[in-house]
Amino acid sequence: MDLLADAQAMRPELIELRQALHREPEVGLHLPRTQERLLEALRGLPLEIATGTETTSVTAVLRGGAAASAPGGGPTTVLLRGDMDALPVDERSGEDFAATNGAMHACGHDLHSTALVGAARLLCAHRDRLAGDVVFMFQPGEEGWDGAAAMIREGVLDAAGRRADHAYALHVSAGGLPPGVVAGRAGVLLAAAYELDVTVRGAGGHGALPHRARDPIVAAAEMIGALQTTITRSFSVFEPVILTVGILRAGTARNVIPDTATFQATVRAFAPDAEDLLRDTFTRRLRGVAASHGVEVDVELRATYPVTVNDADEADFAAGVVRELLGEQYYFAAPNPIPASEDFSRVLNAVPGAMLMVGACPPDVDPAAAPYNHSPLARFDSSVLDTAVTLLAGFAAERLAR
Description:
Layout: H1 3-9, H2 11-23, H3 32-42, E1 48-51, E2 58-63, E3 76-83, H4 109-125, E4 132-139, H5 147-154, E5 166-173, E6 182-184, E7 187-190, E8 192-201, E9 205-206, H6 216-234, E10 241-250, E11 256-257, E12 260-269, H7 275-293, E13 296-305, E14 308-310, H8 312-326, E15 331-333, H9 344-350, E16 353-359, H10 384-400
Parallel strand pairs: 3-4, 3-5, 5-16, 6-15
Antiparallel strand pairs: 1-2, 2-4, 6-16, 7-14, 8-12, 8-13, 9-11, 10-12
Helix pairs in contact: 1-10, 2-4, 4-10, 6-7, 8-10
């Protein structure tokens, strides 16, 4: 089977689907319009389709026609994941199919779900040659909603009647990688993510008489700086931790010292067991700063997504598929992990597999300067669908042939 040629032949209709999804992005775990479009795109294929109970997920199972000839132990099952949700970002990409509803596919999930539809169509066309089953996991709620965990509770890992044996996913990148180049690595690919919430409680007063108050803003400002120093003095440079404060709130008037100040941060770490040390270190340092200012502080650290770890054998297999189907020059062995995070990590904690990154930067843009994922300016070239469809179908077809 010539998967790349078949994928290229489907490009016009897949681009149409991708643009339709992009125009109407939906955020979170409940994406009714997106689900409707994807179900329509799968209509008529020989798939066993189930929709979610907690979410608007879609799970489709393809039974391979050659499964009866599979070696002992029953047919192999391969799971392929494509996420569906968007971000609460006002799009400024300039695309003629840009969204206008206050949300945006700024992380390329419209491409992911479209590519999974394309892979399903390709594999259905070659169903008689598949010595095993394929589970297509259309997942909502990746962007901070832990949709993978919800789908696991819904039974996606056992949708074929037994636990999946292998799992694969792709993630497009609006910058950093040349168009069509695929990056992968064995071991840690993406960081674990944590949410840090801090509330500083002081005593409000007149802005002209700060000595009569206990200013939570000054304390919070010192805390933010202190946390960066704490990281460099508490964690190994070879197991980096990244902390970014994205929200800082305090006050109602320029001449009023408020009672409270709050800030919220995202924390990324590559060590799988970093949570306890992060919580203890941050709490101790923030309480010390609070004591020096005569204020009180509440600190809450929550784990969101674990480290995304590619199985070594699966990463090597996936790299081989890229080289075989696309050419040696299209595979890049990433030397370092990426500090983004992913809930596909939950699937990889349960099933051996791999995730790879795919360059989707438009050809007229320098990848090194292109706005990255999550930017309102991010642009993803639709031609990457050829690559993504080919690889998703190839991972399944090649794995089931072994």
